[in-house]
Amino acid sequence: MAEDKKQAYEDDAEFITLEFEDGTEVEAEIMGIFDVEGKEYIALIPDDDSDDVYLYGYKEVNDEEFELIDIEDDDEFDKVVKVFEELTAEEE
């Protein structure tokens, strides 16, 4: 499931629209951006009444755009999930 790689910020809104290869679109709330081993990642909560959280690599293109990067390496993904879980556990 890949989405359009560039997403535009919406004037201080905390939602973005993800568009997947099959043409479906999902509104997602930006939960936060966090760092793992020197790389930035973003956590998104889809607005679909599920308990899912989407995790992607994050890269700022400029002040108004950023790029979402699929995490294809299983070891990298496991590290990102572990850090994300630690961060969210601290907030509870």
Can you walk me through this structure?
It contains one helix and six strands. With 92 residues, the chain is of the alpha+beta class. It has one domain. A hairpin with a 5-residue loop joins β2 (15-19) and β3.
Total of helices: 1
Rg on CA atoms, Å = 13 Å
Give me the count of strands. Answer: 6
SSE pattern: EEEEEEH
How many domain modules? 1
Measured as a percent range, the helix fraction is: 10-25%
Q: Sheet with the most strands?
A: 6 strands, antiparallel
Structure summary:
By secondary structure, the protein is of the alpha+beta class. The protein has one helix spanning 74-91; strands at 6-8, 15-19, 25-36, 39-46, 54-60, 65-69.
